[in-house]
Amino acid sequence: MTLIPLLLSFILTVKVIDITTSEPVENAVLIVGKNYTYTDSSGTVRIEVDNSIDVLKIVRAGYKTKEITLRKDIPFIVVGLEPEAYILKGVKISSAYTIGTEKKENLTMSEVILDPGAAASVFWAVKDLPSTSGNEDVAPIITRGGDPTETVVYLEKARLFRPYVLETPSGGVFSFIKTDYIKKAEYIPGGFGAEYEGGMSGVLSLMLKDRLNSMRSFSLNLSGTSFTFSTPYFLVFAERNDQRFFAKINNLEEDVVYAPVLTNIQVYLNKYLKVFSYYLDEYSSYNTFGETYEITQKRKGVVVNKKLYSGDFGFESSFYYSHLYKNESIEGFWGATEMAQYLGMYMRALYNEYELGGELFYPVFSQNETYKDTNLPEKTGSNFIKSIFLSKDSRFLKFKVKTGLRATISENNKRFISPRFQIAYPINEKASIFYSTGIFYQYLQPYFKKYSFPYAFHNNFGLESSLFPSLQFKFDMYYKLYKNLIYTEDSESTCTGYGKAYGLELYLRKKEIPLIISYGLMYSERCTDTSGLVPFENDIRHKFTFIGNFTGPLKTSIGIKLKYHSGKPYTPLRDVQQVDSMYVPVWGEKNSLRLPPYFRFDLRISRNFYIFNGFLVTYIEIENLTNHKNVIQKVWSWDYKECEDLIILPRTYIFGFVYNF
Predict the structure, then answer these.
(1) Measured between alpha carbons, how far is 169 from 328 in angstroms, rounded to an integer?
(2) Whole-prediction pTM
(3) Domain that holds residue 393
């Protein structure tokens, strides 16, 4: 009786690879009769095939579909998939850091999940790179001495504005984009191509998975719970995050931690279109100087993306809409509301080495503020921005060259031209040098729309090398000039400020362990008032990061992270003058003092189990193990008589589990 199934079927192991790189292809769909399954991260799958079936069909987005005639006497086959033609035309030159599932990436998604203190978030993994600076205990990405608005975040080429949740005065604590359905993330800290605009420092471009797996996942930790339900064509994610219990367990004082509460619901469809929608409801409070500071925030949005490939031609379009409503208050003293809506469309076409595209972008802002029953003038603004861009990839001898040009028209018909140029030279098969330059304009200055947009002029030089098969090395030097910054000391603010930022970065990664060591040296100075050219608030001179992941006893995974950087500059308070019922501060020399150096040591121990036909991941994490007092900023009382050091994260303990079934 037990031989009957063997006579009716046979077992076949299939490995799917990319024929141009020999890298494994994950999530390729294998169709056998009416059944289908997927390859794992190694590109491999083991299937049972009915003897009556003669053909195996393999489908993967971005690759040509392939059919294989089966032979019952061959139990193992390797199948090479051919990428769509236009994907092969890309000439990548910019010194980008990438995160994804392929072995050639700077960081794999599994490393992001195991990275201690990263909350399994791509945003937090990016903050470990030498190009980022600023507040390490909050999520917004600050690139090379800029500010968070100068790094543009894209999701399938759709702009994501303030993609951070659980917000504090220092920024968001987490991002709402989950790693589970991110295929790849590319972080470009300077010299990016003409397809990107609107941030004069950096770009973080996220790409959603082309195909999902059938799975269910449930997680529980001290901060809350989440549930994911996924099929090959749609995913639903729901999360409830309440950090009040987390704060109580860790004995955190009220004047140290915010108590955010979050409801997060997301739906992702990818049958014919990629449709990503989200809804977030957030509340947080902060007690200081006997006053309660409260934030209520609601946001919703949708991104629709479509890609078409045919031979040497490719076309991509994205439509996006988002809405934000935020209310802040200190009872009986101060209140503020903010409304922001964003609507846009992005399109691009690729043919051989040419790329042509355009973007329509319409943001609307409204702010209202009340101070002790006194209504301040409402601020409103909108910028209908239209852009077109053209770029060309070419090769000259051994040089790879990419030239680009972007033209932008603002609401008041001001015109901006942004030339871009990138060149790379392969020294050998393992190393290449590159140079990039260009002009990069900053959007989202709604209250100063009658003036020119701020912009930066970038110069980037770097070296990328594989010193050994498993050792990756990157070296970057950069110098950028800021022009048309908001100058706030005029009776009517103008765009006459200026600044500069320059430095160097070293990045070394060993893949097998993995092990990452990085160092960044950076100077950032700006002149935006009568103080002259002084260090900017995110002028972090030295930044050192060490990340390691090792196998411990009992098959545990042990992750450690050490991070150090010099303190941020701040302006001391010299005196306070009282005018009627108002207290007017008298500040000292701008950014003449610095906060203490930042140091953080995170430890994570995790263990995987196979139980009840599913995978159970258990973990315990200690963040800021040494309990170093990392001061984020100085916080003054409303009358400037008292000052506190804002510390977001003292030593904290986190434990929980994730069950995939």
Answers:
(1) 10
(2) 0.82
(3) 89-660
Task: Give the integer Cα–Cα distance in Å for 244 and 261.
Answer: 8
The answer to whether residues 289 and 637 touch, using CB atoms and an 8 Å cutoff, is yes
d(CA 267, CA 403): 38
- Contact yes or no for 614/659 (Cβ under 8 A): yes
Q: State pLDDT tens for residues 516-562.
A: 999 999 999 999 888 889 999 999 999 999 998 888 888 888 989 99
* Overall number of domains in the chain: 2
Give pLDDT < 70 ranges for the chain: 1-8, 20-21, 61-62, 83-94, 101-105, 114, 117-120, 166-174, 252-259, 287-290, 373, 444-452, 489-493, 512
Residue 490, classified by CB atoms within 10 Å of its CB into exposed (0-12), middle (13-18) or buried (19+), is exposed
CA 130 – CA 125 distance, rounded (Å): 11
Q: Is residue 410 located within the same domain as residue 546? A: yes
Outline where DSSP puts E strands in 156-197. 158-160, 164-168, 171-175, 182-188
First-last CA distance in the chain: 31
Which of 83, 113, 140 delimits the end of a domain?
83
Amino acid, single-letter form, for residue 339: M
Whether residues 422 and 540 fall in one domain: yes
Q: Are residues 64 and 109 in the same domain?
A: no
d(CA 60, CA 83) in angstroms, rounded, equals: 9
**Closest to 89 (Cα-Cα) out of 317, 392, 425:** 392
Phi, then psi, of 456 in degrees rounded to 5: -130, 145
Q: Tell me which H or E stretch contains 564.
A: strand 557-565
Average per-residue pLDDT for the chain: 83
Contacts of 351 (CB under 8 A, 6+ apart): 86, 312, 313, 314
At residue 24, φ and ψ (nearest 5 deg) are: -65, 150
Q: Cα–Cα distance between 261 and 292 in angstroms, integer?
A: 16
CA contacts within 13 A on the Cβ side of 229 = 4
Let me know whether 536 and 460 are in one domain: yes
| Closest residue by Cα to residue 116 from 658, 628, 655 | 655
d(CA 92, CA 128): 23
